[in-house]
Specification:
Helix content is 40%, strand content 12%. With 260 residues, the protein is an alpha/beta fold. The structure holds NADP nicotinamide-adenine-dinucleotide phosphate. This is NAD(P)-binding protein.
């Protein structure tokens, strides 16, 4: 998610050379959930390299150190303050195996994939922190289109996230007087394919092999996605040139899900 007009610009402790990127997001602020690892971290790096200020979330002190290896100490301190105020680790037991769920698992899944993004966008709207031509990007999954009995709630949550984007797109484009202050804002979901992050690789070799067997045959490019592959797509949607794409689901899955 990126909004314009905050002058704070993070400097980078490591990562690719800034000179290879255009500084097209100077003055913008991005709020990124799960910015310490995997896809969220790659997105934070992509946007920060383009001059964007980043406010990210993570769940523990170790992860704060991971963030500090990307962004300068001033930005990291604000992460730390926020994290200390709101310890937020959710214990998600599973992704919704049919016949084995309890209410807590259902609620936590809805909390992570629906309630939290809704409340973040709502808070930013209420405080009028969105600027004209802002970007809302929801990270969905191939699972929203390719069902599996062991991920009932995950699939439902991601599908709902795609629906949220359609309604946000319709509300924030400029047709509603109430949201004129953020006219031109786009909302899209990025449907992510199998990506090589700790969350996936920690499932163990058998499960990873199962994932490969399920997803690679459908992909046009038969390999694991890297977090940077997904970040590049999110980065495209954050660019000024993406102003006419809204209410869409964009597949970042090496062709695993073909939308059109
Ligand atoms: N990897 C894939 O193949 C894949 C495919 C499709 C969609 N996605 C989606 O992409 C997004 C990122 O996934 P990922 O694979 O990069 O890894 P992830 O483990 O889902 O995300 C890692 C980041 O999220 C934070 N996080 C993890 N669990 C959390 C929780 N219960 N409450 C609050 N924050 C939490 C972590 O913070 P800490 O560092 O503090 O733990 C870290 O910053 C997710 O929405 C996922 O559903 C991933």
């Amino acid at each position: 998610m990126a909004t314009s007009s905050n002058p704070d610009t993070p400097t980078l402790a490591s990562g690719p050379s800034v000179s290879r990127c255009r500084l097209d997001l100077v003055g913008c602020v991005a709020v990124i959930t799960g910015a310490s690892r995997g896809i969220g971290r790659a997105i934070a790096l992509n946007l920060a390299l383009r001059g964007c200020s980043v406010l990210g979330t993570c769940t523990n002190e170790t992860s704060l150190e991971l963030i500090s290896s990307v962004l300068d100490s001033e930005v990291t301190r604000s992460y730390k303050d926020t994290a200390r105020q709101r310890p937020s680790r959710l214990r998600i037991k599973g992704l919704g195996t049919i016949g084995e769920m309890d209410v807590q698992e259902v609620q936590h899944s809805l909390l992570g994939n629906i309630q939290t993004p809704v409340m973040i966008v709502d808070e930013l709207v209420r405080r009028r922190l969105f600027q004209p031509d802002s970007r809302i990007i929801y990270i969905s999954s191939v699972r929203s289109k390719q069902p599996w009995s062991r991920q009932l709630m995950y699939a439902a949550g991601k599908s709902a996230g795609e629906s949220l984007c359609r309604t946000w797109a319709q509300a924030f484009g400029g047709k509603e007087e109430k949201y004129q202050f953020m006219a031109g804002t786009t909302a899209n979901a990025v449907l992510v394919g199998l990506t090589q992050t700790e969350a996936v690789m920690n499932c163990g070799p058998d499960m990873v092999a199962e994932f490969q067997k399920e997803f690679f045959p459908a992909q046009s490019i038969p390999r694991f996605g890297q977090p940077e592959d997904v970040a590049d797509v999110v980065g495209l949607l954050c660019s000024a040139e993406a102003k006419w794409i809204t209410g869409s689901v964009i597949s970042a899955s090496g062709g695993g899900i073909k939308i059109g």
